[in-house]
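Convert to structure. Protein one:
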Amino acid sequence: MPQATILDRFRSFARKPPRDMVRAVQATLTHLGRRLRGTGDGLAPGLAWPLLPPRALRHRFYAAARPDADAEFDRYPELAELIGPWLRHNARNNQGDLPRLYALMLNIRQVMEEEVPGDFAELGVYRGNSAAVLAHYARRHGREVFLFDTFAGFDAADRRGMDAAAPAAFGDTSLDLVRANVGAERMRFFPGYFPGTVTEEVAARRFAVVHVDCDLHEPMKAALEFFHPRLSPGGLMILHDYANPHWPGAKAAADGFVRRVDAQLVLMPDKSGTAMLRKPRHAAAAG
């Protein structure tokens, strides 16, 4: 019997019912994925086949679908503007962490759609990648952004206790580099050791969105204690690195705080384990 040609196989495939077509494609891709995992051909180093369930992954990276709202409905038109500053000077960390960018966009937009009053703030700016996301929505909605950082890496005062062994990290930045990435409009910069850089004006503000990315116990604790009472009802705090074992101090500080104020965290599986906290709408103004 002569061997079927590629055209014969295609014709046979085209005659299948749609459900059988899907099953055939899935089976073919799964088979190909197994072969590629065995040989490493055709995939970038460390990239696992996307159809394999997470428990079967043996590599650091995997392929994932873009959200339907973006890929099929173009509901994130601002992504084209934000992807540049999201990656600038920090592509090694952020190019594989698009779920975090989508989560920032989705949740900040939700808070704005609900018309939660208040400004934006960030403690732990590094090179301004997430700050650029805050800046975009602040300009669109008429809010101010308050950025707090040493702009020179971890302060020695915070590398103590459970963080005593933390490296002297994130010093490869500067205020000028951040300014270049986020722009000047509606931005306020507070270089130095937080909360010592807080002014009376800042202390009198209310906040709708606060992003905390400071990794260590003491600054995470200080951020929660300062910003949460000033968070508007319905406001959002985003705590980066909460579920990241590299930075156990961040989780310890957040856990201790939410127990004291009887709040709840919602976790997301981005690269470094972000947690989110929203203040209930009925919360007292000083709560």
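Protein two, convert as well:
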Amino acid sequence: MQFAHPEKSGLVTVSFHSANDDLHPKTAASIFKQACIREEEL
């Protein structure tokens, strides 16, 4: 699964295996960092 930031170039790719799988904490942190989102904002 790939996501595009509305204002930055490039894509973020997230592996997706099933709806019940959780993201590894480091993967989630990397996604938040690239998207300029703090976890507290969610």
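The two ends are 20 Å apart (CA to CA). The helical segments are 25-34.
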